[in-house]
Amino acid sequence: MSRLKSMLLRLRGRIASAWRLLRQMSGDDAYERYLRLYAANQQQHQHASPPLSREDFCKAWQEDKWNGVKRCC
To answer: With b meaning 16 or more CB within 10 Å and e meaning fewer, what string describes 22-38?
Structure first.
């Protein structure tokens, strides 16, 4: 039984790792990364305003992605 439990734990870990990678590659975890970076830099930069809400962050990300010229040539 312990061998099966061990295999299931390894499988669970691999699925969790794959899920984290998928979220990172798709940008789904961008807001969580933004909050971690904001908190890490808070002492150095002493931000006057609180971090953006999830909604404001997503709006800013979309505007940055689609506004302006986005081509190579």
So the answer is: eeeeeeeeebeebeeee
Backbone torsions φ then ψ of 8, nearest 5 degrees = -65, -35
Q: What would the pLDDT profile of 19-53 be if each residue is shown by its tens digit?
A: 999 999 988 899 999 999 998 888 787 777 889 99
Structure tokens at 8: 């299931």
Rounded Cα distance, 61 and 70, in Å: 14
Supply the pTM of this predicted model. Answer: 0.66
User: Quick check: 14 pLDDT over 90?
Assistant: yes
Q: Alpha helices, DSSP H only, in the chain?
A: 2-26, 30-45, 54-66
Tokens of 60: 């800013």
Sign, CA dihedral 16-19-25-27, equals negative
